[in-house]
Amino acid sequence: MFEKTERTKIARKPDRGRYDRETVHAIIDEALYCHVGIVVNERPVVIPTAHWRQGDRLYMHGSRVSRLIEAMAAGADICVTITLLDGLVLARSGFHHSMNYRSVVIFGQAAPIEGRRAKLAAMRAFMERIAPGRWDELRPPTGKEIAATGIVALKLDEASAKVRAGPPADDEADYAHPVWAGVVPVTESLGEPVPDPSLAPGIALPAYLGRRTGAKG
């Protein structure tokens, strides 16, 4: 369990709060991107970025000279948010309309990943998260590419999840109101892969992409 802190304790709808690592990790792993909140030059900035998790650390990467990576590598305080939208909740009154969702908020300071071996291991983990089996097919990264890439890791110490699921929660008197109510599911899925127009003849869709997208090679 994550320890509840002043920043992670759910104040609004506390019954939706989740502090177990299993729930937090599952949301992190399902999401393909996160949003990082940070103060840069005395101004708040929220930037979307891809992420991946290894154990109790959240990893993010980008250009080594980007303002986000530079600030995180320097130890700036950050707030990472992740949201998965599961449904539109249509109630019998406008006031009780809502959304079903799973979200995570993480606070802390990230640390840079240094060294060729450590960076390559992190890059491999990121690629394997996106398309398991792809890393070994790719051209190996050059020294210049590795040097130009900044990677940071945020230890998952201060985090909590918030989850809403189920049907509308209407006022008792409204259940007799003659209007449709319920949940419209929202899903995120991978579509049919579109080959690069410059793809050389004879290169088939990799089996790992076919398994993940349901496409035929």
Describe this structure in words.
With 217 residues, the chain is α+β, with helices and mostly antiparallel strands. It has 2 domains: 14-169 and 181-186, Electron Transport, Fmn-binding Protein, Chain A (Pnp Oxidase, Chain A, Roll), CATH 2.30.110; 188-217, no CATH class. Helix content is 21%, strand content 35%. It contains 5 helices and 9 strands, in the order E-H-E-E-E-H-E-E-H-H-E-E-E-H. It has a 6-stranded antiparallel β-barrel with strand order 2-3-4-7-6-5. A hairpin with a 2-residue loop joins strand 2 and strand 3 (43-54). The protein is globular. The mean pLDDT is 95.
Considering the chains and any ligands shown, give keywords for the structure.
217 residues; alpha+beta; Pnp Oxidase, Chain A; six-stranded antiparallel β-barrel; 5 helices; 21% helix; 35% strand; globular
How is the CATH topology of the largest domain named?
Pnp Oxidase, Chain A
Number of strand elements: 9
Rounded Rg: 21 Å
Structural class: alpha+beta
**Residue share in helix:** 10-25%
Rounded mean pLDDT is: 95
CATH class group of the largest domain: Mainly Beta
Integer tally of domains: 2
Distance between the termini: 43 Å
CATH architect. name of the largest domain: Roll
Strand residue content: 35-45%
Please work out how many helical segments DSSP would assign: 5
- SSE string, helix = H, strand = E? EHEEEHEEHHEEEH
How would you classify the quaternary structure? single chain
What does the largest sheet look like? 6 strands, antiparallel, barrel
CATH superfamily of the largest domain: Electron Transport, Fmn-binding Protein, Chain A
User: Low-confidence parts, pLDDT < 50 over ≥5 residues?
Assistant: none
User: Overall 3D geometry?
Assistant: globular
Q: Reading side by side through the largest sheet, how are the strands ordered?
A: 2-3-4-7-6-5
